[in-house]
Amino acid sequence: MSETRIHGALERIEKALSRIETQATLPRAGASADIELAARHEALKSRVAANLGELDKLIGRLEQ
Q1: How far, rounded to the nearest angstrom, does the alpha carbon of residue 42 sit from its chain's CA centroid?
Q2: Share of the chain above pLDDT 70, in %
Q3: For residue 28, what pLDDT is reported?
Q4: For 30, phi and psi rounded to 5 degrees?
Q5: What is the reported pLDDT for 37?
Q6: Using CA atoms, how far apart are residues 23 and 18, in angstroms rounded to an integer?
Q7: Which residue among 55, 58, 62, 63 is least crowded, i.e. fewest CB within 10 A of its CB?
């Protein structure tokens, strides 16, 4: 994977996370919806963090 593609992927992930965080701050229908949304948001943040970690490893291997 080229460095340009990696940077493009990182930018798309960061933009998506930003949109999700923006939506997470908007008022919702009720408390149960907020709790579910918060749990989904945390799960997504964990997956994104894991994916960014993998991308960091790939970049590290490409730089060797």
Answers
A1: 10
A2: 92
A3: 66
A4: -160, 175
A5: 85
A6: 9
A7: 63
Question: According to the model, what pLDDT value does residue 23 have?
Answer: 86
pLDDT, tens only, 20-51 = 889 888 876 676 777 888 899 999 999 999 99
Asked if residues 21 and 37 have their Cβ atoms less than 8 Å apart, the reply is no
Sign (positive or negative) of CA dihedral 30, 17, 39, 42: negative
- Which residue, 26, 21, 25, is CA-closest to 42? 21
Question: How distant, in Å, are the alpha carbons of 13, 36, 52, 60 from that of 3?
Answer: 15, 36, 14, 11
CB 9 within 8 A of CB 55: yes
**HSE-CB for 22 with a 13 A CA cutoff:** 6
